[in-house]
């Protein structure tokens, strides 16, 4: 939702990045304010996931130009852990399994680390268990998931719910969801998107990276950006997603880049 008193959380200007010496991002401009939901859409290879990983600080990607400010500070001065503690959250397209690490221990450590950064009280194991069980209700997750290894043996939908559970616990200022709808059936999609909607408020913002319009049936974006060949070439409202669903990406292939969300 667009609020008249919203503050700029993320300001991206001319961002360029490479992986294995190949330039993927070729000049991204994007402004994200508090309270807003931005959807980034595009075909495979357009640079969507690269953009998400660069913001999170993935080591495989090299920033070669441009700037990114997060709450007015240079994001590239922070390593990935520092970005997470500052309030940048990335939900992975393919969450990894961590055998031998109990989900409850992983979640409590992440939560307490962020609490310490914010100058707030940490929770002991018993306090945390009560707290996390309430959050799990939001994702319709059984408490049994707390005793299992992180994502170990989880279905695709269960892994994605576990990602949003982390988001619910960490309460990030900026949540970046990298194709969270990928591999979800209709029930899992409903549960996950309901969780995302309930976590959104006037003090945070969300960037949704997706191929398809179907996720936007549940999460209504304030802005839709179309990425192609490492650039944002079109920005519009939610109707742009419907146009893409109806007519595909070919019709915008010759569009000129625009300053997105500025």
From TrEMBL:
Assigned keywords, A-Z: ATP-binding, Cell membrane, Membrane, Nucleotide-binding
Which molecular-function annotations from GO does this UniProt entry contain? Answer: ATP binding; ATP hydrolysis activity
One family name in Pfam for this protein: ABC_tran
Q: Which residues belong to any copy of the ABC transporter domain?
A: 10-254
Q: In which domain of life is the source organism classified? A: Bacteria
Q: Does the keyword Amino-acid biosynthesis apply?
A: no
CDD domains, sorted: ABC_FeS_Assembly (cd03217)
Keyword Membrane found = yes
Query: Transmembrane ranges?
Result: none
Family designation: Belongs to the ABC transporter superfamily. Ycf16 family.
What protein name is recorded for this chain?
Iron-regulated ABC transporter ATPase subunit SufC
The taxonomic lineage of its organism, from the top, reads: Bacteria, Pseudomonadati, Pseudomonadota, Betaproteobacteria, Nitrosomonadales
